[in-house]
Design brief:
This protein is 28% helix and 33% strand. It has five domains: 268 residues, P-loop containing nucleotide triphosphate hydrolases (Rossmann fold, 3-Layer(aba) Sandwich); 108 residues, Elongation Factor Tu (Ef-tu), domain 3 (Beta Barrel); 72 residues, Elongation Factor G (Translational Gtpase), domain 3 (Alpha-Beta Plaits); 109 residues, Ribosomal Protein S5, domain 2 (2-Layer Sandwich); 91 residues, 2-Layer Sandwich (Alpha-Beta Plaits). It starts with 9 loop residues before the first strand and ends in a 7-residue tail after the last helix. By secondary structure, it is an alpha+beta fold.
Length: 696
Amino acid sequence: MAHRIDLSSIRNIGIMAHIDAGKTTTTERILFYTGKVHRMGDVDKGTATMDWMTQEQERGITITSAATACYWRDCAINIIDTPGHVDFTAEVERSLRILDGAIGIFSAVEGVQSQSETVWRQADRYGVPRIAFVNKMDRVGADFSRVVKMINQQLGSKAVVVQLPLGAEDSFTGIIDIIRLRAYVYEDGVGDKFLTRELDKNECAEAESFREKLIESLSELDDTILEKYLDGKPISAEEINRSLRKQTIANRLVPVLCGSSFKNKGVQMLLDAVVDYLPSPLDIPPIIGTDPDTGEEVSVPADPDAPFCALVFKLATDPYVGKLTYFRLYAGHIKVGSQVVNTRKNKKERLTKILRMHANHREEIQEATAGDILAAVGLKETVTGETLCSPDRLIVLESMNFPDPVIDVVIEPKTKADQDRIGESLRRLAEEDPTFRTGYDEASGQTIISGMGELHLEIIIDRLLREFKVNANVGKPQVAYKETVKTNTKVETRFERQTGGHGQYAHVILAVRPLPEGSGRVFLDKTPPGLFPKEFVAATEIGVRESLQAGILAGYPVDDIEVTLQGGSYHEVDSSEQSFKVAANIAMKDALNKAQAVLLEPIMNIDIMSPEEYGGDVISDLNARRGRVVSFEENRDSRIIKGLVPLAETFGYATNLRSLSQGRATFSMELKNYAEVPESKSREIIGRRYGTSLRR
């Protein structure tokens, strides 16, 4: 029997936010106050512990999710610091998949921003309980109540205030605890010295008002609180916290705290809230998997003595130990040298090392138990989203969904040595990053790499040059268009060829129809039973899917389409799998023509924060880019413009926006959807695609 650990004392949390909301700074303060590091790192100086990559230090942003562990009030807190830039949203996706709770950080000035909404929706999808931390209360323009309102309205969450700021901007000196009705006033700029005092009359009146609102919110969800509230009985801080924890874990409420991480104010109270309100592995429902043999659902309890079961959520390359496989251990225990089964591939793997990670630093351990988030060395074939299990109890856990890339770049190695090296380098990078894709243009003989944005590909190329020592010429970024169909159609194709001896024969009847956005490519077999061998159905599907890799308009992938094999015929001698692949390919080209193929382009949500005096110029420029304004929001002397704009029209936008606003406006974007390209623009794109060169 494994040594049973106290799972109730574990918190597996993520820290998520829009870029520049103070996420990494907050993490650095947490590590300092928990004693994990003895010097606070600084994002601007490139000394942040969790931003360890060269590219992160140079740019002052988080690119890859980094894991660490620390201790607070006898609780082990496993932390994953996630990127805030939309280009790296996959890092957030895979982190939230394996976390039990999260801290959402919001700037007190900007409030809820585009990426804030994206990561919040990701957390909603996985049912991750959250607390909110309104950061930067010391900044000019800080407005706590506005941010709370935005969390309620824009994110659709029931935000409940548990702290109030003492002052704001330059006068921000501390925090009011509305549950215990006391104030924490900071004495110095370091943050580890603060006074606890009683509230004055005005402070007390405001705090009691918010305390009453909090109790009202709890009474709507908790019968015990409701009974005492209706009877007019006092409700203790312990009772409030107990009820608030329960409702937070149930995702009914989001406690809201405040502070200034950069000025070291509020971090200790935030750590208290992590322990008090966010769940342990025992507080969340057992994860549900599938028996690979029967297809039946299997419950995986958070129990160190249950059969081993873990989910791989990230791969990374370490220059000293090679491939690192990050995993969340849901049940059981595992020792160094143990053999496990990758249930998706039905492959046996062996863990040669188990590592507890602190950013890029490694601590070897001999055994891991349920609730841990760790990394392993020795897993050769396992990739992100796959399940590792004990050989005597096979389970497949739900994987993760990642968005398709939206930007392509041509890359050409400079020398023969670079040519030999680039294939393996790109394979390793694609293995690490599920949103990074590689392809090969047969017509031009060029390698195409695809990613989530300009910054994403810039980082990939930089890593190729620095880490993998590949010298290459890189083309300009181009939009990753898609193709689809607008109407239903049905086609029938016979493929016959006699070449002496056995000939080739295949006959297929295909029906094609468009699907809603995001449906992908669906193939259905609706042939009468026994019409022809199953291997011919499989070959037809392969032929269909191969043809969808390059559409008839401009050679872009065809998406959101359903293809149904309805019938056909075969010849006992002349039919083969290859014949049916060819027939399917010919049929699909005919079907795409008849079903009105159209070009699709990515449409971006864009948030622009501009000083009021430049608002008109910014809007005019957005309209000129085929964009449109969706809404406005006034924020003191600035204007927040929310709009939609085609990705194709945004290249170089950062430079242009700086010029329009004398460097004072900022923006952020994220993918909203794909939409049909206007006909005139479509003709231009197709003409460019098949013009003098296929070079992108």
